[in-house]
Every structure is written in C-alpha cells, then in structure tokens.
Amino acid sequence: MIKKDLFAEPGLKQITVWGRGVYENKEARDVVVSLTEAAALEGKYVQAWENYVDLPDRIYVPVRAYGKISSNPIESKYVYENEAPDIVVLTEETLVKGVDILAGIKPNATLIINSKRAPEYLFKFIKSNTENLAKIVTIDANNLSTSVITLSGAEGATDASGIGKGIGAPLAAAIVKATGIVSFNNLLDIIVNKSAARKAYDQAIIANVHDLIKTYA
Amino acid sequence: MAIAYEKIPFAGTVKSPQKENEGMITGNWRTRRPILDAEKCMECQLCWISCPDSCVNLMTETSPITFNLKYCKGCGLCAEMCPVGAISLVPELDFEE
C-alpha cells in the first residue's frame, strides 16, 4: 500500500474565483487571466479557464473561473475543475451565504472577498469547510472601479474589452498582497486599470482566521 | 437531479400541482431580499403576477404577501412593479438568516 499521494503536485497553486452571472462573469475571468498572465511573465506554467457547467448568461447565478499556476509542468491540465483550491475569490460578498465556496480547500488557503463589510462579519456566514482557511482578505473593489458588464469573451470567445479594466484589477492586487503568488509589478504590466490596483494593494484588509475564531469563542 | 430515467416526466417538465423543483433551487442567486411593508400594501397582487419564479405567496395567515426565499432570485421585479412602494430590496447580508 502506497501512502504517498501519487497525483500530488507540490508546486501547483489553484485559484477559484466565484462571481455572479452576467454582472461579474468577465471580472471573475479577469482575476485569473491577469494573475496567470503575470505568472507566465515569471516563467511559470499556467492555465486559466471558466467552468463549463455554470450558466454565465443567467443574471446573478453563481459562476466560477479557474486558474492554475505551477513551477513545474501541470500534469493535471485536463482536470477541468479546481478540486483543491489554494485561493478562493468572491467578486460579490453575498456568495458567502448559501454557496459552498470553500469545498476542498488546501491547508493555509486564502479567501478574498469584494466587500466593505468587516472580515469577522463575513466569516460568520461561512458554514462549512473553514478548517483549512488561514486568511480572509476584504477589499472594497466596487468603490475603486466599476464592473465591466459584457459577455464578450465568455465561453472561449474573443475578449474585446481588455484584461483588468473593472473590479478584476483591484481583486487581483489584493490577492497579490495577501499571498504573493506573483510579483505586483508583473501584475501591473498585464492589467489596464493600474491606479485601482495600486489603491487596492494599499487598502486590502487581511484578517487571520485563527484570531477571528478566538474572538468569537 | 439524481432521478431514475423512467421517473422523469415527459419533456422534463414538473407536474402541474407541484410548486417547487428541488433540482433547481435558486435562492443563492439572491443579492437583495424583498421586504414587504404590510401597512403600505393594498393587496393589488401585481407582485404576485409579475414574479417570474412564482415566489410570491398570497394571503398567508400573518401577512398579505410572503416571499418564498428558497427560490427567490432577488430580481427586484416585485419592487419595481409595486405601485405604492411597499416592497423594498435590502442587501442579503444584512440578515443573519
């Protein structure tokens, strides 16, 4: 009996972005595209794609966009859903309620939420799979930029609207601040809305989940 | 929907007396929750006829109108249609439940 996980990929980081259909479909995709493009500049192996099962043309439906960043060639490149994400991003705060956003997260996972509410308030709504969650990051991206509402680029079509023009840019900057998954300068080379990203890099609030549990216990 | 193939009704439709479809629960699509001000409500039932998901229940015991929040998507059509402004949309995270 082999105890070692034969399919483990130590260098692989999985990013899952949850958004709302139509309104944030492009923004959810922009977060992973900007991060993976920035990682590609650093010579990493990357993948970015959208969930094939979700319905991005239905207003407010939860939709997912995925990214993989690895220092080694990605062996699981044909696995079309992120089963064990390291980073979970919500482009809209209400997704903490009623959606199992943290399913399968790896230890020391980070959750980034686009919200002006406090991390401890949002954490109360998450009912399951919080054991492996290490950090909650909040950033009021709606205040820094406006969401680009378009289906251009959805489901594999050409995206004519530019990467990181709306709330995707500040969210990606908050991810970089909290996790350091790519260098911030490389991210700025990719995204369009650079001023919002710089502000988000300063304003993102990082809360330690361990401390939040202590204050509520 | 994990239903045996033989038990699926013709054309995948839901039988007519049934009001809910467990295979398509849309409550988690909602970002804003409709709240009724019962004093303003004049029971014209415009919200009931305009709700695309049939989530408005009429003439319940406690209130002229209640909302089926298990399926309400928070589209806001009821608040838009209400002629007296009795329905307001409140951000979903303002509610603990």
TrEMBL record, chain A:
Top-level taxon in the UniProt lineage: Bacteria
Keyword annotations for this protein? Answer: Oxidoreductase
The record ties this protein, via Gene3D superfamilies, to: Pyruvate-ferredoxin oxidoreductase, PFOR, domain III (3.40.920.10)
Where does the UniProt annotation place the signal sequence? none
Which InterPro entries would you find in this protein's record?
OxalOxred_delta, Oxidoreductase_gamma_subunit, Pyrv/ketoisovalerate_OxRed_cat, Pyrv_flavodox_OxRed_cen
One Pfam family of this chain: POR
GO molecular function annotations of the record: oxidoreductase activity, acting on the aldehyde or oxo group of donors
Q: Where is the Pyruvate/ketoisovalerate oxidoreductase catalytic domain?
A: 35-208
The record's section on NCBIfam families has:
OxalOxreddelta (NF045790)
User: What is the official name of this protein in its record?
Assistant: Ketoisovalerate ferredoxin oxidoreductase, gamma subunit
Automatic annotation (TrEMBL), chain B:
Q: Which cofactor does it need?
A: [4Fe-4S] cluster
What keywords are assigned to this protein? 4Fe-4S, Iron, Iron-sulfur, Metal-binding, Pyruvate, Repeat
Q: Please report the stretch or stretches of sequence annotated as the 4Fe-4S ferredoxin-type domain.
A: 32-61, 63-92
Coiled coil residues, start to end: none
Keyword Iron-sulfur found: yes
User: What are the recorded GO MF terms, alphabetically?
Assistant: 4 iron, 4 sulfur cluster binding; metal ion binding; oxidoreductase activity, acting on the aldehyde or oxo group of donors, iron-sulfur protein as acceptor
Which NCBIfam families does the record associate with it? PorD_KorD
What name goes with this protein?
Pyruvate ferredoxin oxidoreductase delta subunit
Q: Which organism is it from?
A: Megasphaera paucivorans
Q: What is the lineage of its organism?
A: Bacteria, Bacillati, Bacillota, Negativicutes, Veillonellales
